[in-house]
Amino acid sequence: MKPEAVIFDLDGVVTDTAHLHFLAWRQVAGEIGIEIDERINEQLKGISRMDSLARILRSGGAELRFDSQAKIKLAERKNALYVASLQHLDPAAILPGIAALLEELHHQHIRVGLASVSLNAPRILQALRLKGQFDFCADASQIEHSKPDPEIFLAACAGLGVEPARCIGIEDAQAGIEAINASGMLSVGVGSGLEHADLLLPTTAELNWPLLQTFWLTKHSAHAV
Ligand code: G6P
Ligand code: MG
């Protein structure tokens, strides 16, 4: 008994772009007099660009200082900085354990999906030379709600043609774990300080197929009792 698909978040799971998002936001926030730290960054993981900006402005008490045109300009500035920081991204930036896991999932005939709300996801997969490893990537431009809404994971399941209950989702963000749980998939959290994950691992280096298989079997035999 195996899952039919494993669906990955991108930033912070496949590669460490989560930190690059933070550096770009910190610069833009600094330019408008708002200081942000790693604590607020945790709340931006899995959250769309415009929603992230709204949270940053709120944290600095500046929601009302900018009209929608000015907000779009700030988001564009952040994206330009972020995209510039992606320039040197190459396969060396794939996080430990991920490349081997992707290969093994294909070997096991388990479908592989991507559920990232990043509009830069295609560019990042290309730079990591991982495009061919994903059977379906949910299109962030078609998604209305950021995580913790399950929309992006449900879109990935639909694109792969699998039932959420037959899938595992992997996330590094609290909003992402909640999105996976709400979709009806089993959730694997990677990192510290995460709650409600069905399985929690300290880093991606611990992720491998035998572990996911045991996890799947344990959960399903528990359900059968
Ligand atoms: C991911 C990241 C978020 C980021 C979002 C949008 O979910 O975890 O931090 O804000 O993607 O990314 P984008 O590349 O479209 O600005
Ligand atoms: Mg993430």
TrEMBL record:
Keyword annotations of the record: Carbohydrate metabolism, Hydrolase, Isomerase, Magnesium, Metal-binding, Phosphoprotein
Family annotation (InterPro entries): B-phosphoglucomutase_hydrolase, Beta-PGM, Beta-PGM-like, HAD-like_sf, HAD-SF_hydro_IA, HAD_sf, PGP-like_dom2
UniProt source species: Buttiauxella ferragutiae ATCC 51602
UniProt keyword Isomerase present: yes
Database matches in Pfam families: Hydrolase (PF00702)
Designated name of the protein: Beta-phosphoglucomutase
Cofactor list: Mg(2+)
Keyword set includes Nucleus: no
Superkingdom field: Bacteria
Family: Belongs to the HAD-like hydrolase superfamily. CbbY/CbbZ/Gph/YieH family.
Enzyme nomenclature, EC number: 5.4.2.6
NCBIfam families: bPGM (TIGR01990), HAD-SF-IA-v3 (TIGR01509), PGMB-YQAB-SF (TIGR02009)
Catalyzed reaction equations: beta-D-glucose 1-phosphate = beta-D-glucose 6-phosphate
GO MF terms held by the record: beta-phosphoglucomutase activity; hydrolase activity
Enzyme type, top EC level: isomerase
